Amino acid sequence: MLSQLRAAWRRHDVQIGSIVVIMAAFFSALSPAFLTLSNLGDLLENYSVMAIMAAGLLVVLISGGIDISFEAIAAVSQFFVAIILVKFGGNWFTAFGLAGLFGALLGIVNALLIYYLGAISVIVTISTMTFYFSILMFMTQGRSIYDLPSWFTSDMSWLSIPFPVMVAAVALLVTLVLLSRSPVGRQIYGLGGNPEAAKRMGCNILGLQCLAYGYSGFMAAIGGIVQAHRVEEVVPYALIGRELDVLAAVVLGGASLSGGIGTVSGTVLGILLLAVLQNGLTLLGVSSYAFGVVTGAVILVSVTATAYASKRQQRRGVRDAV
Q1: How far is CA 293 from CA 33, 49, 254, 274, in A?
Q2: Which DSSP string corresponds to 215-267?
Q3: CB 296 within 8 A of CB 244
Q4: Which range has the top average pLDDT, 31-35, 100-104, 148-152?
């Protein structure tokens, strides 16, 4: 029994879940408003867009890459679809279809640049993020869209479950099926774990990268549409600047920055951890800048741990060879 508990505790999901429970108990003891239904409902809805985007980013991280441009893709897709809906009308199928298509195409551009240029993914996606967002600001001059169709801004809750939460649940479920129930999911894990071995086994490296970055762009665009529905307007710069929050949530959930490791359940727990932490600090009146410190620390610790693990693996390989 004791050995089973120790084995369970070694699982990253169990550790993160335990931290979430401890933090929730801590903040509820200090602030009675924390465990109220209204606060918890707001918490889920506020982080639903992050969950959608994190689902796409998780696939990229597992494949061994990194995507910093997804927020810019979300902003561009959001504005592009909003213009079409205002001028020509449509419905939710039109909105999600157009956004997903446009976001996927922009994500595939990232994959093609990374593959054919042989450049580091973080450099390429930072460059495309700047390019996409600059084009958007140049074309819109920073103007927002407020006159969205009534069907787009109306309440879509079902059984008191907010529409953004339902979309996030579907996004996470689709990602779970892709990664754990499909052959291409195993290839994505293989690509991130050992690219050379994946190439020798006949995996289509370009195809897998296009799928990973296209999926990230697709989910980012869907998240952008959900965000526009939530706030009932489209502001070109509203989504920019949250890239590191999403990245920190996925990394907290156990995804490795070196690729090959990551789960949907861990990502959900990582988002919950950041949500509980930020909401608890807000209720206690702590400055919002403190959350930025935590986000940066999470990424720094993750990079350090990844580098340390890589060095240990290299040393072990040298000893085995000797």
Answers
A1: 24, 22, 20, 12
A2: HHHHHHHHHHHHHHHHHTSB-TTSSTT-HHHHHHHHHHTT--TTSS---HHHH
A3: yes
A4: 100-104
pLDDT of 318 > 50? The answer is no
Q: What is the DSSP letter of 118?
A: -
**DSSP state letters, 64-99:** T---S-HHHHHHHHHHHHHHHHHHH---HHHHHHHH
DSSP 161: B
- Mean pLDDT for 126-138 is 94
Per residue in 86-114, pLDDT (tens digit) is: 999 889 999 999 999 999 999 999 999 99
Considering only CA atoms, which of 307, 310, 280, 308 is closest in space to residue 294?
280
Mean of the per-residue pLDDT values for the chain?
Answer: 87
Distance CA 144, CA 139 (A): 12
Alpha helices per DSSP H over the chain:
2-9, 12-30, 37-46, 48-62, 70-88, 92-117, 121-140, 150-153, 163-180, 183-193, 195-200, 205-231, 243-252, 264-283, 289-321
